Amino acid sequence: MFATRFAPSPTGLLHRGHAFSALTAYAAAREAQGRFVLRIEDIDATRCRPEFEAAILQDLAWLGLSWETPVRRQSEHLDDYQAALSRLESDGLLYRCFRTRREVSEAMASAPHGAMEVFRGRPLEADEEARRLAAGEPFAWRLSLDAAARALGGFGNLSFVEDGEGTIPARPELGGDVVLARKDVGVAYHLAVVVDDALQGITCVIRGRDLFEATHVQRLLQALLGLPAPAYRHHRLLTGPDGRRYAKRDRSETLASLRQRGMSAAELREEPGFG
Ligand code: GLU
Q1: For a Cys-Cys bond, which of 26, 188, 233, 238 suits 163, CB 3.0-4.6 Å?
Q2: d(CA 44, CA 74)
Q3: Domain spans, the chain
Q4: Is 248 a catalytic residue?
Q5: For ligand 1, atom 3, which residue shows the shortest CA distance?
Q6: CATH 3.40.50.920 for the 1-76+239-275 domain, yes or no
């Protein structure tokens, strides 16, 4: 059965761009007489807040959407991500990275063949690693693209289906050696998403074009974990009257404030750009 999802992170209030994304996924589910799943991506305990989650539910109800319950909250399923991480680790696909954010940027800027666009690293020597572990230094787990390529015999057979565009070769090298478990929260976005999309039976991931590169990485993780590959539909990004896309960091007007000033969801859907 067709199943799609809307997966916001409760790190702020939703804006028009989120409404467009949620409505796009919801319409596709309705059209296919399939499932619409809401998932709360709240692994980042430092940035996520319960009041933002409450506001998200209110916003989506105001938009006229309904979703399956119970809603999956990632913070309640850390064991699932840990199990996937352990599997990748025992398959020799991960390495510990002790670098700080700054050290990662410095390593990228001073790469021998010119600045790296994405981070590629390698495990520390065993004695150095043992020393840092013994000292209790925090580390992240990174996926080794080299090890992944060896495990799959290269990435040549890796692809995903993009609705309306057909089969697209996956290029996980676009993401580099991504972090799969952050130092602070023990899991990271790409891993949680592929585990959940599989567990929730998502057959079509509908999300904004800004996550297109993420799909290349996620397709690789699905292959390494033996998970089914959903189809993808990366929709255009809604832009405001100034031609810029809506974004939390730009303080775009929130759905909560549209609601407060008496706008109806029907009026919102009729705005230019929504159609
Ligand atoms: N939680 C992500 C976000 O709010 C979306 C993840 C996804 O759709 O895969 O940007």
Answers
A1: 233
A2: 9
A3: 1-76+239-275, 79-195
A4: yes
A5: 8
A6: no
